What does this fold into?
Amino acid sequence: MRHDFSKLPELIDRHPKGPESLIMVLQEIQREYNYLPCEALTKTAETLEVPLSKVFSVATFYNAFSLNPKGKRNIRVCVGTACHIRGAKLIQDQLENSLKIKAGETTKDLEFSLEVVACVGACAMAPVVIVNDKYHGTVNVNSARRLTKTKAKAKAKAKVKARTKK
It folds into this structure.
């Protein structure tokens, strides 16, 4: 996957040079690219004068960071106790079937990523599915299916648009 890293110096320069800025810089990179590309980690290590091993150590320690590309829509299924009791596994199964991926994977078109997470602290709304930063409470199999419908709609629109151009 090729990226335009022209913004990278600007992202890094927003913070003081030194190891104390490492997490903040990685957050900026994650926000910009939706994951932490190796090239960006190497440049971060050089600029902040931090060993590359330390950069990778931090990047792999925190769950908020990903070394693999994420989809435009990151779907997280809570499987904490309250959500588990109220059917989180059924919702996970529905999302996996709809997207044709397993938890921890991203669709080939980079539209969706699916993750299973521990308690998100919204037990009163259980079961909970988070799409990017939007919480969806009392989710059931049907409403979970609707969360992925945008993918089918976008593909259908693209096909219609392609046909009308011919």
